Amino acid sequence: MRIGLLTGGGDCPGLNAAIRAVVKQALGEYGHQVIGFRNGWKGVVDGDVIQLDRSNIRNILPQGGTMLGTARFHPHSAGAMDQVMATFEAERIDAVICIGGDGTLNAASKVAEQGINVIAIPKTIDNDVWGTDLSIGYHTAVNIATEAIDRIHTTAESHNRVMVVEVMGRHAGWIAVASGIAGGAEIVLAPEEPFDIERIVKFLRHRHRAHANFSIVVVAEGAEPAKGSAMDYEVQLGQFGEIIAGAVGERVAHEIQERTGFDTRLTVLGHVQRGGTPTPTDRILGSRFGVAAVDAVTAGKTNVMTALHNEEVVLVPLEDIAGKVKPVPEDLLRVARVLA
Amino acid sequence: MRIGLLTGGGDCPGLNAAIRAVVKQALGEYGHQVIGFRNGWKGVVDGDVIQLDRSNIRNILPQGGTMLGTARFHPHSAGAMDQVMATFEAERIDAVICIGGDGTLNAASKVAEQGINVIAIPKTIDNDVWGTDLSIGYHTAVNIATEAIDRIHTTAESHNRVMVVEVMGRHAGWIAVASGIAGGAEIVLAPEEPFDIERIVKFLRHRHRAHANFSIVVVAEGAEPAKGSAMDYEVQLGQFGEIIAGAVGERVAHEIQERTGFDTRLTVLGHVQRGGTPTPTDRILGSRFGVAAVDAVTAGKTNVMTALHNEEVVLVPLEDIAGKVKPVPEDLLRVARVLA
Amino acid sequence: MRIGLLTGGGDCPGLNAAIRAVVKQALGEYGHQVIGFRNGWKGVVDGDVIQLDRSNIRNILPQGGTMLGTARFHPHSAGAMDQVMATFEAERIDAVICIGGDGTLNAASKVAEQGINVIAIPKTIDNDVWGTDLSIGYHTAVNIATEAIDRIHTTAESHNRVMVVEVMGRHAGWIAVASGIAGGAEIVLAPEEPFDIERIVKFLRHRHRAHANFSIVVVAEGAEPAKGSAMDYEVQLGQFGEIIAGAVGERVAHEIQERTGFDTRLTVLGHVQRGGTPTPTDRILGSRFGVAAVDAVTAGKTNVMTALHNEEVVLVPLEDIAGKVKPVPEDLLRVARVLA
Amino acid sequence: MRIGLLTGGGDCPGLNAAIRAVVKQALGEYGHQVIGFRNGWKGVVDGDVIQLDRSNIRNILPQGGTMLGTARFHPHSAGAMDQVMATFEAERIDAVICIGGDGTLNAASKVAEQGINVIAIPKTIDNDVWGTDLSIGYHTAVNIATEAIDRIHTTAESHNRVMVVEVMGRHAGWIAVASGIAGGAEIVLAPEEPFDIERIVKFLRHRHRAHANFSIVVVAEGAEPAKGSAMDYEVQLGQFGEIIAGAVGERVAHEIQERTGFDTRLTVLGHVQRGGTPTPTDRILGSRFGVAAVDAVTAGKTNVMTALHNEEVVLVPLEDIAGKVKPVPEDLLRVARVLA
């Protein structure tokens, strides 16, 4: 069998673990061949390929990023589906393993409709892919964000400040909620719960009067004020539909400073959240997903995504996932609230 | 309500997160009182108590260990159940939240039999408590072990050595398997699969002849040779029934060196695996378990253990857990094997 | 003897190590008393004091920030020198140990002019205090910045991007140069060498054409374009004379994107650079400075600053330091250049 | 010019930074060629060479170990000086840059006597090379040891134990003293000061009676009891003259347990101290030494070692170094004592 392999969308830690597992399992267990496409779907369109063997994957397990490169490129939007099919034919690809988030999974569905066998592996630091308990990259992002909050904590306390920390999370607040609980944040703002700036201000005033002289506020980049609340604001998008980093954080920090008079500072974590060596959890998740994807391909199962469900790796149909977002569950949001 | 709180058995990261959550939830949400016992069951017997409030739990979230102290002490074995009951009566305790592993849960059951309302929170870096996907401390231990293997990897490669790393895990090989996969170990020895030294030696010889000049072997302290295999060995226990650190690792390293002639070195991770700042996962787990334990106590549910099941916190009866060990599942053992 | 102790200016890791050493050495070695002032010079003016003993310094060695609190407050500018003297008299202070940067050392000089015995301990993550090889906090900041660059490196490479990272350093580029060398940055912009955006652009174009598809550019917040060069820009200051975080980085990233067409992104590290657990180097430096300051006070040496010179702790007169900035030496700037 | 390059002795973090700097500076600045020898002097004897260019050094800056491999092999002891000279002649080597510790520097001197131009770069985690303030690898080792002590601290405190931590340092106690101060150890045992177990026991008894219930004791592997003191012991050596890991630590832990009755545990850090990603300090040191070595070779200076002196890189004659050990200075030993 000749298996195609690509990574698409934003890079994140754990992709190389998945690539390594796909290659090891495909070559070692089944004797398949693995053809890598460089820079995601763009490499498929351009025919930019590399045959992968043991030497390519040496030492990549602890490395962040993706040794295949990646790009935000959608072949269907770009009107390039014909080139995709042409490359697959030229390379005699029997099935494609696509590691990616929303956009990549969406492209994978379109490709599947053309009769190509597709297996998807979910990755997104936002952790909002439907159908899987975990996506590659999320766990490392939470670690990085928590470490940053730990650092900011000592400054907040030494200077009697309100520190606002903006983290990633456009449609779901997974990173904000997890790092907020782990970092002991007083307030966590997530897209799941539109916020009321007046309640926040009231809470901070009460806290600083009663028993503290500092506070940590973690804001997901996709958090929005409740309709009709005191702060009117809509998330602004960049040219690729991306959220402008810092936009929400700046508004929130500004409002807190103005309304409370407390010395308030903003930190925007930005790109550091998606880079560097993956945590063991992301390495293991990538490894398990890679092995499972090759097992699935070999068993003739296609148009599915590998998923973690109750600690086990399972396969879910691609069509069940499309267009859905996995929100942070209420019980986790509650823990963030009650431990404030 | 007056809630007793103790931590028993070996310390580990994440205990303070649970203590903090118990106190915050009990005082803030319900207006209960929390009475801490120092040094586990020993403090109950001795009447060594401290009333816990917000000031006691300040800044403890990122701290390893337990601010209550802990001890390996079993009141029933020590014939001290009467003092336990006396202290609970003197302190007018309505229910006890016990954070601990095997031994502590066992003691909790004995106490429950005396009519005391008990809620247990599972902790053990070995992750072998039955009935819960995760126990407090395990996740941090895997992180530490993986970081150590990453470090040892560069030495193995620079010196063309076989490096044997002994990690904790007496009855189950969770740390060994997880850190072995995450660290890219060639061989993982876990109690779940008695090993055959001759197969290991054969594998290493083949690998070093074919395409590598170094190898990493991760050994759980409770790993044992298969009965009738070339290496005859039984796990030796210390005076408290503890495994002697390094005993198995030394045997395995010695056999590999002797049989292959490869330069082989042993590292015994030991106590570093159970200390230091908890990972976000352990902080969140401790926080969730602490909140859930207080909710359970308040709702009148007792003789249960908080547990993580399919990402949710649930309660399982203490009697369902007693005497059982949760082994590493076969599919994870297989990933460790196929990625070797 | 009654020794006053304060920390002033921005907080940073290692302050608590110095506080602990002052208290241990003063009480344990000489039997002095130590009176802490809260929130820097503000606490002196307000008479906000705390007598420090062994219990206050428990467990603070690995903690970032300062357990005394700090503030950006200059008693002379605030016309509060009389209150300073009044507090010192009321508390019967024989000498004051001031841990701080430029502003605090300046205030210390003014106080010394009033006849108060002053010993200064230098701290600044910018490392630009004249007369000492190292100031407390710098080393940890370099560690944090390097870790961030390591993370950003994998994203740069995976996405074929130019990543601009803005770090602290208003008058001197120590953090930028050190983290740039350690992180393998292609370009480092420091205040010591006004930059020419056209040369940068030329370098990047050549590099991306010849042998790479990504680059890392580290910019100190105080870096400025050469007079008369293509990019006209002056550093903008905030209301306290502070540099606006991100201002220079944004300009540089924008120019690179516009002039090269390469996909360019900015990360502003901000407050994380000054928080969290100190590195061993900062803990040791703080400890040595604290011990030396108490030794100096006891020996009747005053109006001096503790300094590291050729690995040894020495004392330098406060008057030698005033108004000077310690730039990055040419040989270190050259290493950053030749390893690009 | 054709420059030979090798790394000898035990591996450590920062070697790759030096290799990268040598290659970048030699090729980029001067147009020299760099011939790498694999596995230290062994590769010279065997003629195991690799021509190094930009592609070989890609991404190695943050990697521990040495991409050239290393070995403990002394050509003069092995009677292989003729092969060394033969290889240098066959490869037309104009000068050799040797990165190593005692043994390698010694071999370098022997080679220099044969008329070969030699430049040495000092590396040793023990930091005991005479003539330089810092050697490559030491700084990272201190970081690792301090992190381990931080972890062990929480266990010591939670369990009321004496924790003994054995670190490397055969002839000098640099790692023990630095990590002991940074980790807040109560007692540090270094080869520079033979210890008296009775004084240690007395100190611990007093401390545990007066104000604490735990203690940390850091022991360098080369620490020895004072002659005539209660504990009679000589350091035992392995077959290569190496200290047996754990030997001293075990003796010390045993004596403390026996004499005080306190629950006492030993952790032997071992190989983790010399692996993994280098700290920024080691990366910068390796980079500076590499650049300086190539500058020296080009300027015709030979039979010298690069050294750090008062923050500057200088050259010291090889003959000045031979047979000397750089001990921890008294003022640093004192800080370890007074902060106990």
Automatic annotation (TrEMBL), chains A, B, C, D:
The record marks 103 as: Important for substrate specificity. Its EC number is 2.7.1.11. Its main location: cytoplasm. One of its GO terms (molecular function) is monosaccharide binding. PROSITE patterns: PHOSPHOFRUCTOKINASE (PS00433). Pathway: Carbohydrate degradation; glycolysis; D-glyceraldehyde 3-phosphate and glycerone phosphate from D-glucose: step 3/4. HAMAP family: Phosphofructokinase_III. This is ATP-dependent 6-phosphofructokinase.
